[in-house]
Amino acid sequence: MLARLREWAKALKREALMLWLAARDPRTPIMAKLVAGFAAAYAFSPIDLIPDFIPVVGLLDDLVILPLAIGYALKHIPPALAAELREEAAARTERPVSSAAALVVATIWAGILAFLWWRFTT
User: Fold this and answer.
1) Are 62 and 48 in contact (CB under 8 A)?
2) CA 98 – CA 5 distance, rounded (Å)
3) Where are the transmembrane segments (predicted)?
4) pLDDT tens column, 79-117
């Protein structure tokens, strides 16, 4: 079951990336472009309309708003364009992760934490 959940989350991430690409593609109709951009931004944003820590309602907005926006956008994006953008999104999500970039980010965070520790403990 955990494997199916991971696969579903991966597919949702690819679909959100496809919508982001569709929002930036000039061949996408304007209303689909606006809704696709909203859906992708909402999916990738760390800020929710209703925060997730609010019981039930916090997750309900993600389960209602996002699928409705995705469904509307997909219904109005030409099928050939959607297929092309899905392929591009899949290629982008399959890119290897940069260990060097992760190391740089971890080093920066470690430096910030060390500075804060030094600043507030001395």
Assistant:
1) yes
2) 25
3) 95-118
4) 999 999 999 998 887 765 667 777 888 899 999 999 999
